[in-house]
Amino acid sequence: MLNSTPLQPRLPKRPRINNQNDSPLPSLTSPSPSTPIAIRPPFLTLNQNLSYTTPQRPLASQKSRKIYRNGYESKPKTPSYTPYKLNNPGHPRQHAFAFSNFQKLPAMETISARRWNELAISEGVLKVGQHLRDYQVEASNIILSRWWDLCVIAPTGAGKSLLWVLPLLAQRKAIAVVIIPYTSLGFQGEQRHSGSNIKCTFLHSGANSKAELEEIARGGEKHVIYTCVEMLETPGVAQVLHSASFQAQLSGVYIDEAHVLHESHSWRPGYARLNILRTIIGTDAPLVCISATLPKRYRNSLQIFAGLRPDYYLINLGNFRPELSTIISHMQHPASSFLDLAFVLPWNSTAESIQQTIIYSDDLDVLTSMFWWFHARLGSINLPVTLIDILHAGLSEKHQKLCTADFIAGKSRILLGSDKIGAGMDFPHVTLVVQYRCRGLTIVRWEQRRGRGGRRDGITALGVILVEKSMTGDDDNDNLSTQCPKSEDPGMLDLIQTEGCQEAVVDVWLENPPRETLALCGRCSNCNPALCLSTNYSWVMEDPRPHKERA
Fold this sequence. Notes:
Its EC number is 5.6.2.4. This protein has 551 residues and is an alpha/beta fold.
């Protein structure tokens, strides 16, 4: 007998209609307004007539972005285990590592700046003649008190990586857990203090044996652990996090480049579950959130998703760096031609004359095509093609390490990359940073990328944004503006469309403390007409005679 029930096609779900001008809000209840204990001014005396009130429209949340692993798109998958849980169905039963004869870290009194400098030099963290900055001393004393959570906003290249090292010098037997957004920061951090008495370990999928985990849980030394949020959630690391000896010796949990949480919690669920870590380790160990760009809305996300306490202590030095300049230039050629990048590699270039340059694009297909364009251009002017290299998450770890080492050593001069060479990466000699098209980019990420330049004393750097027509406000199809940003970041639109000082726009959106400034800053292309890109012209011979008279 045949089934007489009529078969009806499944109707597709009706698309949800969103107002593109409204920024999406987190699904969780927003926290009560934070009341930070102290807001620290920058080192200079401040006096500014400009208004630095936070704009009414918040910074836009970002849409999900593609994740690449070994060149292939990788979509987030539900893990086969419950994050941060010791035992899971279908997995062997395990217990937290247990040790005896360990001491719980006590709260400590304030240490003078002189004593901090002596400790840092004696332990090999600083060289003789170097000195700690005031904010580093203040933050370290707050961490030692174990009383408050802490948010630190300081310029790129200001030595924020010392904040998880210095407390260990005073505590002697302590562990610092540093949560990083990219594996490249872990490899770099593992080598950063190789000449000191600090042990550094990068915990990742290729280095997480039971012996290594057991050594971390045992403690008994000054130990910095670098890891990503996804690794923290694994059952193996749960044996460490639930260990009484580990919790007793935990100096603090540090979220490095903390702005990443706000921009990626929707497509990296590990960041959205970070507050579970706080329920396991408790609040005795402070949570320290560190970034050069961390406006209030980003800090609110840290309260929701990471468990940052509302009464956190705030040190805000802003992200102003006088050694950095900015040019915003409208693209004159089709994006696929890459002719707007000709100023990076003029026809009369020599290997020595090419500035050490980073060029960013968030489209990996565009980035690959750009690589071959530079490759052909180098060959046409008889320069080694090894002067160009490319770095993104779709490439192997071996290539990423070699590429980074070659660029730091100066073997390659132009590095093309995505977020993989974003926040936190330290390249000593970069003098030019270029953003190729800016759709989907936030002002926070741009400032982080621009901050890869000029990271050594005496070096200045230039940041260039090449803006496509659809982002200028002149495109009739999009007509984007700060009042109608759609899915774009209104702060970024304000920066690229303003006719005033670009530096002042950044100050407002990133909530930089006010400072003494001139009417014209001299560091942006709006205030300083001398900041402009060179243009290459092609001469074409033309016969002025009428066509009929030509031979």
